[in-house]
Write a structure and sequence with these properties.
single chain; Rossmann fold; 2 domains; seven-stranded parallel sheet; five-stranded parallel sheet; binds D-malate
């Protein structure tokens, strides 16, 4: 029977599927036929000639050397949709946290913890500076209507938002799952121009790298808020910071912080937690394990990238 090498902590339910089918699952395997991994940045030299398939337990796969794998006939899988709900929930939270200035308000509240009986008076005096808009009635623009984009769209509609989305490759499955209330833009500029909140859900590749740049920011409303739960490289951070400093962008919420983004009230920088829920981790591990099993034992390729 085949051996599977694991990197990172893969949810037990996925590993149990493989073990239950007779695979040897070993993080130190030297001659594995399959690899299952999360965020480990896999180097070509770590892929032995015995490897036939690599399953990335997640949607993005830019931590796998796909070109090297293609050259060597190794099939790479990902698990689109398996963690979409986890990411969606954090996107919705990001919109609300940013609009309602929850972080600056909490930091200020913590800062007055030693003020004793003055606390209620201080709150009364200062609270108006932490006021922020409701999201109901505002326009959410979405670039990319795949599994995550559609879940975000449907939840935003349920919260009373107007949603306009753009996706040149809208799949039949996504179109079926999407609320009829989502307006379909015919070009991305319509989304950029109308969005009070803009969220991007596209893979990072040569075409999309840096897609949110100074040119796009100039098309957006001055108080718009951008959310990036897709990949850090999609957004030109320097351009975002310049727009925030110039007052031509309202806020930036990102799951991909770098040092330049930290310590500001107008940036919410989350350490890549979009899919960090037990549910998403299990769903991804189970899907990845089944993909490897189908491929290694029956030759079936499901969701290769
Ligand atoms: C994904 O690509 O699935 C998410 O960004 C979460 C992750 O990287 O594990």
């Amino acid at each position: 029977m085949h051996t599977i090498k694991t990197y990172n902590k893969i949810a037990a339910s996925g590993l149990e599927i493989l073990a239950g089918k007779g695979y040897t699952v070993d993080e130190n395997a030297a001659d594995a036929q399959g690899i299952i991994l999360r965020s480990h940045k896999l180097q070509p030299e770590e892929i032995t000639t015995s490897v036939l398939g690599i399953a990335r337990a997640g949607a993005g796969y830019n931590n796998v050397p796909v070109d090297h794998c293609s050259e060597h006939g190794i099939v790479v899988f990902n698990t689109p949709g398996a963690n979409a709900n986890g990411v969606k929930e954090l996107v919705i939270a990001g919109m609300l946290l940013s609009s309602r200035q929850v972080y600056p308000a909490l930091a200020w509240a913590q800062s007055i913890k030693d003020q004793g009986e003055d606390v209620p008076k201080m709150i009364e005096k200062e609270k108006s500076r932490f006021a922020g808009p409701e999201i109901a009635g505002k326009t959410l623009g979405i670039i990319g209507l795949g599994a995550i984009g559609v879940l975000v769209a449907n939840s935003a509609i349920a919260l009373g938002m107007r949603v306009i989305g753009y996706d040149p490759f809208l799949s039949v499955e996504s179109a079926w799952g999407m609320s009829a209330a989502v307006e379909k833009a015919t070009n991305p500029d319509q989304v950029y121009q109308q969005a009070d909140y803009l969220t991007i859900h596209v893979p990072q590749n040569d075409k999309t790298k840096g897609m949110i740049n100074a040119e796009v920011l100039a098309k957006m409303k001055d108080d718009a808020r951008i959310l990036n739960f897709a990949r850090g490289g999609l957004v030109d951070n320097a351009a975002v910071l310049a727009a925030l400093d110039a007052g031509t962008l309202g806020a930036y919420v990102t799951d991909f912080p770098d040092a330049s983004l930290l310590g500001r009230d107008d940036v919410i920088a989350i350490p890549h937690l979009g899919a960090s829920t037990p549910e998403s981790e299990e769903n991804c591990a189970i899907m990845a394990a089944n993909q490897l099993d189908e491929f290694l034992t029956r030759g079936n390729i499901i969701n290769s990238v």
